[in-house]
């Protein structure tokens, strides 16, 4: 099974969750576009304990930590969804997007166009903060408008049951995992959440 990991914004916890789901499924990992350093592939790889997951090299590593369309422009690279093929693997594959769903990769296409083009389900990571209900529901509405299949939602960070409940009520999606605010992110923490996630996939 392939899953595309996206979020309601930058730094919502996509890479952490990507490590967790890779650990849960012993899946391979691929970040098609990396804009700036450090590389998320290195971060995810550093959190995995299993020996089955493989880290597939990015198609593009752009030098500037910015929106992919702008970072690609600086590097004189043309990004188009049609030029991206899912890597061949006998394993499950976790694909991590860049930023949120409407981050542009060129003047016409957005990150959300990848799972639509590949016809694979999305898992949405939402971190909770003042304003996150609005951002999450707007993201969900766009996913629904475009007909993108969504496997479920992952909440990351300090819990807010009221916010979580209203997001789940209006989305109709299931909560796959709640990642608490941890003092340290390490192999043991990733394995703990991987075990929880297995029950809901």
Automatic annotation (TrEMBL):
This is ATP-dependent dethiobiotin synthetase BioD. The keyword Ribonucleoprotein does not apply. Catalyzes a mechanistically unusual reaction, the ATP-dependent insertion of CO2 between the N7 and N8 nitrogen atoms of 7,8-diaminopelargonic acid (DAPA, also called 7,8-diammoniononanoate) to form a ureido ring. Pathway: Cofactor biosynthesis; biotin biosynthesis; biotin from 7,8-diaminononanoate: step 1/2. Homodimer. InterPro entries: DTB_synth_BioD (IPR004472), P-loop_NTPase (IPR027417). Pfam families: AAA_26. Its cofactor is Mg(2+). It comes from Marivirga salinarum. GO terms for molecular function: ATP binding; dethiobiotin synthase activity; magnesium ion binding. GO terms for cellular component: cytosol. Belongs to the dethiobiotin synthetase family. Its EC number is 6.3.3.3. The lineage of its organism: Bacteria, Pseudomonadati, Bacteroidota, Cytophagia, Cytophagales. It catalyses: (7R,8S)-8-amino-7-(carboxyamino)nonanoate + ATP = (4R,5S)-dethiobiotin + ADP + phosphate + H(+); (7R,8S)-7,8-diammoniononanoate + CO2 + ATP = (4R,5S)-dethiobiotin + ADP + phosphate + 3 H(+). GO terms for biological process: biotin biosynthetic process. Mg(2+) binds at residues 15, 42, 96. The keyword S-adenosyl-L-methionine does not apply. ATP binds at residues 11-16, 42, 96-99. It comes from the Bacteria. Keywords: ATP-binding, Biotin biosynthesis, Cytoplasm, Ligase, Magnesium, Metal-binding, Nucleotide-binding. It is found in: Cytoplasm. PANTHER family: ATP-DEPENDENT DETHIOBIOTIN SYNTHETASE BIOD 2, DETHIOBIOTIN SYNTHETASE. Gene3D superfamilies: P-loop containing nucleotide triphosphate hydrolases (3.40.50.300). The active site is at 31.
